[in-house]
Amino acid sequence: MRRSTYFHKLIVYAICLITFPMVTLGVFSYLLSSRTVQQKVNDGALQMLLQMQQRVEQSLRTADNALTQFTVQPSVLRLLTEDVTDGSRSDNAALIDGLQEGLRGIQLSDLRVADVQFIQLRDRWKMSGGGYEPFGPLEPDWKQMYGDRPGSYWTISSRTIDFVRTLPISSPEPTAMIMFRVPYGELRKYMFTHPELGEPFIIDDSLRVVAHTDHWTRVGTSAASMPYARQLLDSESDSGLFKTQLDGEPYNVIYSKSAYNGWMYVSLVSVTAMTRESETIKWVTVAAGAVFLLIGAAVSLLGARRLYGPVRKLYESVFQPANGEAGSGGDIPASGKDELQLIGERVQAQLHNQKEMSRELKSQRSRLQHFFLLKLYLGQTDGSERAPYEAEASRQWKAMSVLVLQIDSLENTGYAEQDKELLLFAVTNIIAEIVPQHERLLEPIVMGQSQVTLVGSPLADEQAYSAWLDGAAKLIRETVKQYLRLPVSIGVSSPFRSLSEAGRGYKEAGEALQYRIKLGLEAVVHIGDVQPDRSLVPEYPEKVKSELIEAVRMCEGERAYGLLEQFTRELFAAPLSHRQYQMLMIALLTDLLRVLQEYEGVLQSLYEEEKSLYDKLFELKTSAEMTEWLYQSVLMPAIRLMEERKNKQHRGITDELLRMIENEYDSPLTIESCAFRIHYHPDYVRHVFRKEMGMPFSDYLAQFRLQMAKSWLTGTDMRIADIAEKLQYTNAQNFIRYFRKMEGMTPGQYRDSRGAGAQGSL
C-alpha cells in the first residue's frame, strides 16, 4: 500500500513556511552587517588617506614657499643676469658667498633635505653643499633634463624626490634653476600603518611610486602594470573608490587626487579581511535556523494530520465507486500524483469532454454558414439553399446591399504584406462588433483580398435607406482607422430585395472600388454615384502634354511637376470609367518614353524593362499616386541624367574655348571663329560660355590679355607699343586707355610702381 503524497506535501509545505523567513532574515542580516563593516572600513581608510595627503602637501608647500622667498632676493636675481665666473672680482665673490649662505639658510620645516643646488644653465656652473663648482666634462645636461619644463614641479630621481624651479619662473628659456632633493624615506613618516585600513602609497601622474611603507623596494618603481592603474588615470573625480582583483583576491582601491602637484594618494583595502568580522553573524544565523527547522518539523507533522483527514475521505468517495471494491479506497496509484490532483483530473476530464462537443458543433455550423455565403456571393446557390435565410430577410428588411472593403495601402502603417490576411480577419471581427446581428446576414467573411458583408434595413424610403447605408459604411471605415491605423475603402452595391441578387451586388461593390483612381483613398463609393455616361468620348489634354514634354526636354523639373499635376486634374475632371482613366495615363507614359528614346542611352540606363513600368502604373489606385510615381520614378531620374549629360557637354565646350584663349590669346580670336572650329553654332557657344564662366567670351579674353600685359610689364623690358600690338590692340592708345580703366593707372605707372623691368617707352 502506497502512503499519501498529499500528506507528505503538507508536511514539507509547513516546514518551508516556517524555515524560509528565518533563512531570509539570516541572509539579509549577514549581507547587511558585511556591507556595514566594509562601508566603515572604506570611510576610515579614506579619512586616513585625506589626513596623510594634507600632512604631505603641507610639508611640500612649506618647501615650495621657502624656495619662493629665496629666489626673489635681489642677490639671486642678479645671478640670473650677471656673469660671476670671474672669481677675481670682489663683487662676484661676494655674490657667490651670499648665494652659498642663502642655500644653507633655507628652512624646510620637518622635511630633511639631502641637498640644495643652484644651477646656472647659461654660464655653466652650480652651487651646492660642496660650494661653487663650474660644470665639468661629466656634468649631466641639466637643461635637457629639467629645462624643457619651465616653472616649478616635483619629480623623482633614482634616490630622491626632487623639487625643481626654473628661473626666471615665467620664461620659456630659463637661465638658471634651483633644486632641492628629499630622500625617499622622508615621506614614509607620513604614511599610516593600520593593517585593517589597507596599504597606503603615493604615485605621481606618470604612475611612479613616490612614497610607500616599503620604501626600500617600492619607491621609484612604476605602478602602470597594476590592474587598477588604468582606472586611476581614467577617473574624473578627485576622490573615490572602485573594486579590483589582485592575485585572485578582491580589493577596494581608495584614492584621492592632489590638485597641488597631480600626485595620487592610494590605499588598497582587502575585502576578505574586512568581512571576517561578519563571519560570526553567519554561523549564529545558521544555528538559529537549524533549531527553528526542528521545531517547525514537529509542529508541521501534527497540523498535517488534522488537515489531511477531509481530503482522504473525498478521494475515497470519488474513486471507490469506480472500481467497485469496498476496501481498496485507501490505496493511491503509483503515478506520482496526490489525491487532489487525481480528483481534479477526473473533474477536468468531464468538463473537457463537454466543451469539445460544444465547440465541434459550433465549428461545423460556422463552416457551413461560411460556405453558404461564398456560394451566395458567387451566384451558385439554388432556391432551397436560400429559403431559410430568404424568409428571415424578407420578414426583417425592405432592402439589402453588399459592402466590399479593401485595404488601400500598407505604407507608413507599420504592417508588412504578409500581415494583410491577418488584418482582413481583424477587420472582420471589428465589423461583427459594430454592425448589429439584426442588420447583417450571418457573419462577415473574407474573400481573396476583400472583406464582404451583406447588410439590410427595414427602411422603405430610398433616401433614408441610402443615408443609413452611407453612415454604416463610414462608421466601419472610421472604426478600422481608429483601432488598426489602417486606410480602407468600401464599395457599396445598389439596393436589392432578394438574396438571389446578392451575386450581382458583390460584383457591383467590387466595381465601385475601382473608382478610387478618381476619388482617392479612404473612400466610400456607391456604384450608383460613379457609373459613367457611356456616350461620353474621353478627351486627351494634348496641349498640356506638349508643354510637359517641352519642360522635360528643357530639364525644368519644377515646371514639369506642375504641368503633370495640371494634366491629371484635367483628365480626371471628366466622368469616365476607371479603365478609361488607366488607358489615358498609359498613353501619357508611352509619349514620355518615346521622348526619352530620342536621347541616346537615357531610357536604357534608367529602366531595364519598359513592361515593368506599365505593370506598376496599373497597380496604382489613385490619381495622386500616379502623379507622384510618374514624377519620382520616370521624370526626375530622366531629367537628372539629361542635365548631367548637358553639363558635361557644356564643360567640354568651355574647356576647349579656355584652351584656345590660353594658347592663342595673341591672335585675333572671336566667338564665331572658335565656334566654327568646334562645330557648334556661335549663339549656342556664346550662351554656354557665359553660363559656365559668368561673363561673356570677349570680357574673359580681354581680362586674360590684361593679366598677360601686367606680367610682361613687371617681368620684361618690352615696349608698351609692342605689348599692345602683341595683344591685338589696333594702337597703343587703345591699350593704354583700357589699362587705365581697369587698373586706375597707365602701363608705365604700373611698371614704375612695381619697380621691375626696364623703363620701356612707347
Keywords:
flat, five-stranded antiparallel β-sheet, 16 strands, 762 residues, single chain, alpha+beta, disordered C terminus
Describe this structure in words.
The chain has 762 residues and is of the alpha+beta class. The strands form three sheets. Strands 3-2-1-6-5-4 form a six-stranded antiparallel β-sheet. The protein has a five-stranded antiparallel β-sheet with strand order 8-7-11-10-9. A five-stranded mixed β-sheet has the order 13-14-12-15-16, sandwiched between helices. Helix 1 runs antiparallel to helix 8 and helix 11 crosses helix 12. The C terminus is likely disordered.
Break the fold down into its secondary structure elements and pairings.
Layout: H1 5-71, H2 74-81, H3 90-104, E1 115-120, E2 125-128, E3 131-134, H4 142-147, E4 152-156, E5 160-167, E6 176-183, E7 199-203, E8 209-212, H5 215-218, H6 229-234, E9 239-246, E10 249-257, E11 264-270, H7 271-274, H8 279-323, H9 339-377, H10 383-396, E12 399-407, H11 420-434, E13 445-447, E14 450-457, H12 462-484, E15 488-492, H13 502-513, H14 516-519, E16 524-526, H15 527-530, H16 542-553, H17 557-572, H18 578-596, H19 602-606, H20 610-619, H21 623-664, H22 671-677, H23 682-693, H24 697-715, H25 720-726, H26 732-743, H27 747-754
Parallel strand pairs: 15-16
Antiparallel strand pairs: 1-2, 1-6, 2-3, 4-5, 5-6, 7-8, 7-11, 9-10, 10-11, 12-14, 12-15, 13-14
Helix pairs in contact: 1-8, 8-9, 11-12, 16-17, 17-21, 18-21, 21-23, 25-26
Domain HTH araC/xylS-type: 655-753
Transmembrane segments: 12-32, 283-304
InterPro entries: CdaR_GGDEF (IPR041522), HTH_AraC (IPR018060), HTH_AraC-typ_CS (IPR018062)
